[in-house]
Description:
By secondary structure, this protein is mostly helical. The chain has helices at 3-76, 83-104, 130-145, 150-175, 183-186, 194-199, 202-225.
Amino acid sequence: MDWEAVAAIAAIVGLLGALLGWVLSEYRASKTWKLELQRFKNEELVREKDELRRNEVHAWTDRGIETLITLSISTRYPELVDEADIGERMIELSFASSVLVEQGRLFFKNKPHGDFGKEKPSAFQGLRPKILDELVLAHQIALRWRGSDAIAKRKLSYLAHGALQRFVSLAQLEVGRQRAASDYAAAGGFGINIDRLLSGTALEQVEYWERAHIIQGAQARWHSAN
């Protein structure tokens, strides 16, 4: 027997086996890498969609706040607007609030509640989300304003202000930041009473502005340090 030939064949077989093992290992590694890459892409796509939805909801809540605060100020201080103009403004607000309600249904779906609204299309079945209720209330206030007497208008004004506060509170839960970038900005304020500031002594006014100056100085030092 030619032992040298046998040894050569064995070496070739071993080399081929090692080469095959390396190929299989690389294939598995490549397959794993592709799976990881696809998983990463899927997660990134989900994050992008979530961020896009967040931005869209944020823009929607901005329009909602603008509509509600316009309604609140217009009903609370009607003397700021001419009678003819406020009637036209209420018509505009009734349209704006109604549009915001229907746009909001894209972000906030009705909650199923037995057979309630079952005869309606799917987007209108069940209970309407609370955040949309405030805009519905704004719509109804705007429609009711022109035909109301002074007492009713005062009540409508309170309702408008409450709707604004509740809407902002719900919007803050939905799109508000969990933590402010600056602790100074998030610190509790002093409370503002313009009548006291205007009628107070010069010393009180100086103390107020000195406190504001201290905060501004602290903010400047924080920004320079960061």
